Amino acid sequence: MGKVIKAVAVFITVISIGFSIHGQSNLGFTESDNLNFSFDGALRMPTVGGFTNPQFSEIDLNQDGAQDLFVFDRAKNTWRTFLFNTTTSRYDYAPNYESQFPADLKDMVLLRDYNCDGHPDIFDFKTGGFRVHRCIAQNPWKFELATEAIISDYGSVVTEAFLLPGDVPAIIDIDFDGDMDILAFGNGDTENTLVLHENQSQDQYGNCDSLEFLVTTSCWGGFQEPPNSSTLEAIACRPEITPPINWQDHAARFHPGSTIFFDDVDADGDYDITLGDIQTTEFVFAENIGSASSPEIDVNTQTTDFPNSTNPVKMQYMTAAYGADIDHDGKRDLIATTNNRIDSSCNAGHVWSYRNVATNGSEYQLSEKSFLLQDMLDLGTGSVPLVFDVDGDNLDDLLVATDFFRSPTAFKSSRIYYFRNEGSSINPSFNLENDDYASISDFDFRAAVPTLGDIDGDGDQDMLIGDAAGNLHLFENNPSNGVASFTLVAPNYMGINSIGADAAPSFFDLSGDGVLDLVVGERIGTLSYFENTGTASNASFTSAPTISNFGKVDVSFFCCNGYAKPQIIERTEFGPEPYLFIGSDEKHVFIYTQGASLNDSFALLDSIGILADRIAPVFHDIDGDGIIELLSGTGEGGIKFYDRDENYPVSNTSVASNKKSWEVYPNPTDGAITLSGDFNTMHHIQILTVEGKICRDFNIMGNQPHLDLSGLNEGYYLLRVAGSVVNGQASIVIAPK
After folding, report:
1. What are phi and psi of 588, to 5 degrees?
2. Which residues of 683-719 are buried (b: 16+ CB within 10 A; e: fewer)?
3. How far, in Å, CA of 590 to CA of 215, rounded?
4. What ranges make up the beta strands (E) of 644-727?
5. Which phi and psi (to 5°) does residue 118 adopt?
6. Contact call for residues 642 and 34 (beta carbons, < 8 A)
7. Which residues, 6 or more positions from 346, have their beta carbon under 8 angstroms from its beta carbon?
8. 554 neighbors 525 (Cβ within 8 angstroms)
9. How many distinct helices (H) and strands (E) make up the chain?
10. What is the pLDDT of residues 565-594, one digit of tens each?
11. What is the value of pTM for the model shown?
């Protein structure tokens, strides 16, 4: 019988649901910065994971009186937290705070203290509008939903305040009355002008703790950004205020995206405006020659030389500006980056910081063009690491493939970076040796995903690369004096062309016949299995999968990007059998087992949470201590590193036997579940997010208790049970409404 992974669970619909009974969450993996990299010099915090479209907000994370940084990445719906070190006057990566924020933030996240309690609240995008979480605790940080949708009075109708997906609005006290207002481009007849949602909290209640808004003008400042242009035009405001229309149908006819930044540059008591546009590489700045209560943007003063003519911001596309006192001198500085996640936008060298050197107002001088980026490994987009002894010195080196790299001044196509281990087996130190290993860029691949295996039986590791088009390409290894040397010998390997986009191959002898078979993940989140019907030295694969939709696995959640990156690992550190680990676009590595035959469905045993997308995991004993670590590539183009204090095996507790004592149904659910089993004594139930944050807490007793999960957002959750009879945990899924 072949090396077929044993069955331990039952596959439920398109989402696999399994129990995990081991006592260590995340298999014991915790994020670590204990890994040394050098890239044009030693990197101070190499394993942050990279930035694509970062959005910057200030927050005093550790409550030491110094403002730290919360950085949300719009392209990937991920975030990073940084502490300001008052001794070194620089920011240090502090990932332990990241799990303290709501798990489902997306598209636009700005921290603003709307209720004046001294602690920032969270504004984020929600279906054409704004959602708000209120800060309720700081140690640890906790946020509760204040409103699912900000409501604004448009005069003729009271409805949700509109925000176009991809826009960065201004959330600021624009009229200096002590409460937080919102300015955003409208839609329909107001999509080219700024709509002011004026907060009525001070007017109605004499305080700032409410979220009640009135649209007082639909053309703040008396200007418009005309269709298909970023040049500002003066206009006469219409007296009537037009409410938003069906935004899915009409929101982006002429206004496909903008960013808004306000600053009182000339210190005259009102805010001047800076706009970024989806189709331009620079800002447009214009002065407010009116007042705070009666603003008038002078379009005749508009300039693209912002923040100065010597070093104006210029990067593709959709520049966005954020204010933060990054040098902690008491004056707000400027951070400029991009907010357009299309492939033609910059994904590297695109976070520019400017110090404010003015005594009053703002005068910005360029400080650096890779703010925070210069301290981390960020190779562009879609990084995929491999551990491999390239030079034959018995030390593990590192290969990192990337999708592409685009800075404001350079473009690099898909390639592999070679980081040579210049340390030791127990204290590795990876130094960039070659930024185009094996000259991969010559072949003009997109989204290269390599894997290694001795496919020709000559005793060395060959390399198979999947690409964005779904093709595979074989590079034969012909070492010289122990140093690997790869040559492309089989483009479009074996004519395999039925995988789908973003092929991610992995070798393993699944059929147990002594030759390497092939499992390939793809963008939509599924797998294909190709059986090797040849020999160890002469592989043979059919162009079509032996089994398509292999294991009926789908890591795309519901639709449509899963970016499945499979690895089948057989190591005693994880347990007595092989397990399938799949990196995904869902902030998780999913761990599966399979049934008695290759045609059976896979069962989800466990998962490892990683706050990144397009996760490309590698499990390896990096530092020679006998404990398996986790190194992961990210969609943001960086590397994440996870250590642990011992080897925790994947749970091999049979779910089938557990199911005899209790079950959860329906699963997936739209908001309510029932537990079957012996719950006639008191049991404690917790519902946790995938990051481990408790979002529901119940004490239950009785026959088939029902749990109301309404209010939870769609996604994966963990249900944990503790009691005198039933103990364990289960994965549950809240389906889209």
Report:
1. -145, 150
2. bebbbbbbbebeeeeeebeeeebebebeebbbbbbbb
3. 46
4. 662-665, 672-677, 683-689, 694-700, 706-708, 715-723
5. 85, 0
6. no
7. 315, 316, 317, 338, 406, 407, 408
8. yes
9. 3, 53
10. 999 999 999 988 899 999 999 899 999 988
11. 0.88
What is the residue whose two structure tokens read 């502490």? 83
H or E stretch covering 205? helix 201-205
Structure-block tokens of residue 434: 């070659």
**Tokens 């500085």 sit on residue:** 333
Tell me the CB-side half-sphere exposure of residue 410, using CA atoms within 13 A.
Answer: 7
What local confidence, expressed as pLDDT, does residue 719 receive?
Answer: 87
d(CA 588, CA 665): 23
What's the longest Cα–Cα distance across the chain?
82
**Cβ–Cβ < 8 Å for 564, 526:** yes
Express each pLDDT in 214-268 by its tens digit: 999 999 999 999 887 889 999 988 777 877 766 455 445 556 789 999 999 999 9
Tens of pLDDT, residue by residue over 308-354, are: 999 999 999 999 999 999 999 999 999 999 999 888 899 999 999 99
**Pairing verdict, β 141-147 and 130-138:** antiparallel
Residue 495, pLDDT score:
96
> Tokens at residue 133, please?
């979480």
User: Hey, which bits of 435-587 come out as E strands?
Assistant: 449-453, 462-466, 472-477, 486-490, 504-508, 517-521, 527-530, 565-569, 579-583
Residue with tokens 């908001």: 671
CA–CA dist 472, 191 (Å, integer): 45
**Among 499-513, 521-535, 722-736, which stretch is predicted with the lowest mean pLDDT?**
722-736
Q: Which DSSP letter does residue 438 get? A: G
Residue 117 in tokens: 């309690």
| pLDDT digits 0-9 by tens, 460-496 | 999 999 999 999 999 999 999 999 999 999 999 999 9
- DSSP for 98-110 reads GGGS-TT--S-EE
Q: What angle do CA 528, 416, 482 make, to 5 degrees?
A: 100
Q: What is the distance between the alpha carbons of residues 32 and 423, in angstroms, rounded to a whole number?
A: 18
Q: How far apart are CA 618 and CA 589, in angstroms?
A: 10
Q: Which one, of 519, 526, 554, lies nearest residue 716 by Cα?
A: 554
**Residues 105 and 72 sit within 8 Å (Cβ to Cβ):** yes
Q: Residue 499 forms beta bridges with which residues? A: none
- Sheet with strand 319-324: strands edge to edge: 319-324, 333-338, 352-356, 364-368
Contact between residue 512 and residue 2 where contact means Cβ atoms under 8 Å apart: yes
Q: Pick from 144, 156, 141: which is nearest to 190 by CA?
A: 156
**Sign of the C-alpha dihedral computed for residues 391, 394, 395 and 398 taken in this order:** positive
Reduced 3-state DSSP string for 398-416: EEEEECEEECCCCEECCEE
How far apart, in whole angstroms, are the C-alpha atoms of residue 440 and residue 413? 9
Query: Which helix (DSSP H) or strand (DSSP E) does residue 337 occupy?
Result: strand 333-338
User: What's the pLDDT tens digit per position in 411-425?
Assistant: 999 999 999 999 999
